Amino acid sequence: METIALVYAHPYPRRSIACRALVDSAATLDGVEVRSLYNLYPDFEIDVAAERAVLERAGLVVLMHPIYWYSVPGMLKHYFDVVLTKGWAYGEGGGALAGKDCLWVSTTGGNDDAYTPEGRHHHVFAHFTPPVEQTARYCGMHWLDPFIVHGSHEIGAQALAASAAALKQRLADWRAKR
Amino acid sequence: MKEALIFLAATVLCVPIAKRFGLGSVLGYLIAGAIIGPWGLRFISNVESTLHLAELGVVLLLFVIGLELEPKRLAATRHAVFVGGSLQIAACGVVLALGLYAFGVPPTAAVIAGITLALSSTAIAISTMQERNELATPTGQSIFGILLFQDIAALPLIALVPLLGHVPHAGGLTVWERAGIAFAAIAGVIVIGRYLLRPLLRLIARVNLREVFTAFALLLVIGIALFVQEAGLSPALGGFLAGVLLASSEFRHALESDIEPFKGLLLGLFFIAVGMTIDFGLLLSQTRDVALLVAGFLALKLAALYLVARALDITKRQRLLFAILLSQGGEFAFVVFGVAKLAHVLTPEWEDLLTIVVALSMAATPLLLVIHDKLIARAVRTEREDDTIDQQEPIIIAGFGRFGQIVGRLLFANGMRAVVLDHDPDQIELLRDFGFPVFYGDASRLDLLRAAGAADAKLLVNAIDNVEDSLALVDRVRANFPNLRIIARARNVSHYFELRLRGVEVVERELFEGSLRTGRRALEAMGVEPFRARDMANAFRQHNVALMDSMLPHYRDQQRLMSLAKSGREELEAQFRQDREKFEKEHPEGWG
Q: Which of A113, B212, B217, B401 gets the highest tally of CB atoms within 10 A of its CB?
């Protein structure tokens, strides 16, 4: 059975409400390997070989994190920099991730209105997607429809539970299709 | 009861005094024995039975040592046991036999007594090495191997004595039959140890009564020792074997801590018993002969052992120590001489003389060690010439102990080239074998620094552990090579300040980072998230370094320093409080 690699970047996972609900729910599915990067590598000394092994045995790579400054948290960027290198992820001798699926799961603080041309962030959320999306595509992965939970600061318990269940369902559906 | 009282009182009185005078506890026990024994105050007259009981101490000592030795490591000492052991017995045996013959002992007796005297005291050598922390060193290991071989060699020796004597020994077994029995016994112990002991121990442990477990542990060791002794081997060997067999079991630590106090007390009793055997009557009536014999015996055996040490590739500085630790006669001599007297190989007069020689040689060991240490301490400073350095590299590392080695290995592993200076000869030989360019010498000497290329080098890593030497080096470099950058290891806070005041900019306190990391691990163990624990340690480091910097100008002003340190502590608390509030604000629960 192909596993699902859940690459998770939250500096203080226990302070999180939204991400934690999502991770906890996804983790109940069989064959999901959760890699909580900040817990594993608090000094940013990522074990590249170990992380690659996790990605290699996965059919689906889930990138999960809260949005920090319109992007991934520093740790995840660092992870991209050291794990997805030439000769493994792309280029000659690369292609280790080619053909795998990639699902981006993220949470934002503000509500939906903030991500509009008139809103606080002056852009729709989709404008911030390309760096992550293109990273996955460059490595030959299929980009799945992202799973974004907005307004995680004020989201109610019920809505959060629904989101968590929906994420789990998406992962289960992905597996069923395989 | 009364005897126990005397033994304990003598121990409590004599051992601390001996230790206080730097003579080691063994000599304390021996003196205690001499005082309370039949030749001293005559508190105790039954030396023989005391010695028998106390032999258990030696058995337990070997058992505990066996416990600490895993079979894998034992296999690695094979060379030390068989090559070292046979070489030692042969060399010392021949020399001592010739010596005794020259002293007028008949040939047969001289051979037997010579080989017997070649054996050393496991109890004294090992407990001395434990006290001095030498057991794990290469020298310690090879001494240990030799002692082990001596325990094995005891078998043919005891079988040989009656053969050479005028009476056929009881039982009428040939040497081969005896050897067969011995082998069968060892095989039996191994089988029992492998397949029977562990389930049995588990069963006993389940009873959950500590005394029962302790009793069983003692029963076990004594049982195996007696069993092995019946087969003609030394009981200590049996104890050792039992220990090794249980070394990898889950009961190792429980057994060790249960046996330990018995071991200590009984071993003490053993030394006391040896002290009691010193026949002062004989000593007074034949002072000249006894003195001559002891001196001759020690001189011959030490000389032979020194050569053996050389043949065994023991480093020059350790050879004398090796010789002294094995120089005394062994407890086994008391048994062999007894048997030899019964078999009419030795005359009673010689038996008495040799027994007292062995006992006195045991007492001589701690004294010889005191002299040795004094000599070595002086020799280390003067004996060895500094190496001529024929190599110049961009980096000089001064001091290549545990600290310098990590720095050096990191540099070497990444293709950096460095000249290393150190003043521990043993260390240097070892490191050279591994291909490190290490030179012997006092790094603070100007000519040596120059030879190592200090004029052109880019960097000096000062990893010297001795504070005074470290500062002397910095002074020398500052005065003569002002452009050479220095990175220094500080032993403690005052050393840190002294280095900084001398203009060294990069100073690392040797324990700081390791302790901080340990603190982080402790926070993590208490449930703090790893990345948060890292934040906390970083904040602590920043604050601490800032505090040190603020204290630097006032380092010479004790009063001011104290108040700074005190306010620093309060500041730290306040800062941590703020830090926590700030964290809560920046990372409110629910973020993301």
A: B217
Among B513, B577, B580, B522, which Cα is nearest to B545's? B513
B36, B215 Cβ separation under 8 angstroms = no
Give pLDDT, residue B587: 74
How far is B590 from chain A, CA to nearest CA, in Å? 5
**Residue A15 in contact with partner chain B when CB distance is under 8 A:** yes
Same domain, B532 and B477: no
Distance from CA of B587 to the nearest CA of A (A): 8
Upper half-sphere CA count for residue B123 (Cβ side, 13 Å): 34
State the CATH number of the domain containing residue A105: 3.40.50.360
d(CA B320, CA B324): 6
B359-413 per-position pLDDT tens digit: 889 888 888 888 888 777 666 555 566 666 767 789 999 999 889 999 999 998 8
**Is residue B378 domain-resident?**
no
Residue A112: predicted pLDDT: 66
Query: Are the beta carbons of B534 and A66 separated by less than 8 Å?
Result: no
What is the three-class DSSP state of B487? strand
Taking only the tens place, the pLDDT of each residue in B507-522 is 999 999 999 999 999 9
Query: ipTM score here?
Result: 0.86
Instruction: Give the CA distances from residue A157 to residues A106, A112, A143, B429, B592, in Å, rounded to whole numbers and listed in that order.
Output: 17, 18, 29, 69, 14
Q: Answer yes or no: do B424 and B541 share one domain.
A: no
Which of B456, B483, B510 finishes a domain? B510
Chain A residues with CB-CB distance to B590 below 8 A: 15-18, 152-153
Write out chain B residues lying below 8 Å of A153, CB-based.
590-591
Query: Of B340, B339, B326, B158, whose CA–CA distance to B233 is shortest?
Result: B158
In this prediction, residue B159 carries a pLDDT of: 65
Same domain, B336 and B398: no
In B, which residues are within 8 Å of A37 by CB distance?
none
pLDDT tens figures, B449-487: 888 888 889 999 999 988 888 999 999 999 889 999 999
Sign of the alpha-carbon dihedral angle for B291, B292, B297, B299: positive
Using CA coordinates, name the residue in chain B closest to A9.
Answer: B592
Cβ within 8 Å, pair B590-A38: no
Chain B nearest C-alpha distance from A68 (Å):
9
Query: What pLDDT, on a 0 to 100 scale, did the predictor assign at position B280?
Result: 78
The residues, ordered by sequence, that sit 6+ positions from B541 with a Cβ below 8 Å of its Cβ are: B512, B516
Hey, is the C-beta of A11 within 8 angstroms of any chain B C-beta? yes
Q: Give the residues across from A34 on adjacent strands.
A: A6
Residue A120 near chain B (CB below 8 Å)? no
Q: How far is A73 from chain B (nearest CA, A)?
A: 11
Assign B39 a pLDDT band (cuts: 50, 70, 90). confident
